[in-house]
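Example 9 (inverse folding). The structure is encoded as follows.
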């Protein structure tokens, strides 16, 4: 997983307080705990994700404080030395296309993020500085379809030093495959494109 690889290479977790936003299955939170984090707190809005994350942490033999609720709840728990996040970032049409997406793709809340994919990314990027302790860092992963430049601009405008630390191109998964015609029609991808670029952005607070 690109975000875990970036976290491991940066060696940011050991001995630090870590916040995982939109934790999902908890795989990144568990990885941070296994890397020696002093504490790991994880948030997700979905009760099923919370149960899954807790079970994953127990199975891995690490402690993660998994909380149900919006990432805004983390404002009462910080500041943190490190924030990691794999938020929903898939551009989503206004019409319901759930019938065209296989159930194996998982729940819609895990990827649907508005017409431009920034429904969660925008508030996350603008609020990150307030969640970070001095000297802290953010690692966030998202598709280039959701606007890498906008994320960098928002993070920098809040006083953080932001830059891309990792990227990879992958074939469309089931959700983007189902939405390929809509993405082409709205000019979000070129005709025939069936790969997306994932990026990890790091932002540091001085």
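The amino acid assigned to each position is listed next.
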């Amino acid at each position: 997983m690109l975000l875990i690889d970036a976290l491991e290479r940066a060696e940011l977790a050991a001995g630090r307080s870590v916040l995982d936003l939109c934790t999902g299955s908890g795989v990144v939170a568990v990885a941070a705990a296994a890397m020696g984090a002093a504490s790991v707190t994880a948030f997700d809005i979905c009760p099923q994700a919370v149960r899954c994350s807790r079970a994953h942490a127990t199975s891995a033999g690490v402690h993660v404080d998994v909380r149900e609720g919006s990432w805004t709840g983390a404002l009462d728990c910080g500041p943190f030395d490190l924030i990691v996040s794999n938020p929903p970032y898939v551009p989503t049409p206004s019409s319901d296309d759930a019938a065209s997406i296989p159930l194996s793709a998982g729940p819609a809340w895990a990827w649907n993020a508005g017409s431009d994919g920034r429904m969660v990314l925008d508030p996350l990027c603008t609020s990150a500085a307030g969640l970070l302790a001095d000297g802290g860092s953010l690692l966030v992963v998202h598709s280039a379809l959701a606007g890498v430049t906008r994320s960098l601009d928002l993070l920098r405008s809040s006083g953080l030093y932001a830059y891309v630390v990792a990227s990879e191109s992958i074939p469309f998964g089931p959700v983007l495959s189902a939405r390929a015609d809509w993405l082409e029609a709205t000019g979000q991808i070129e005709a025939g494109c069936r790969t997306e670029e994932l990026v990890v952005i790091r932002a540091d607070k001085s």
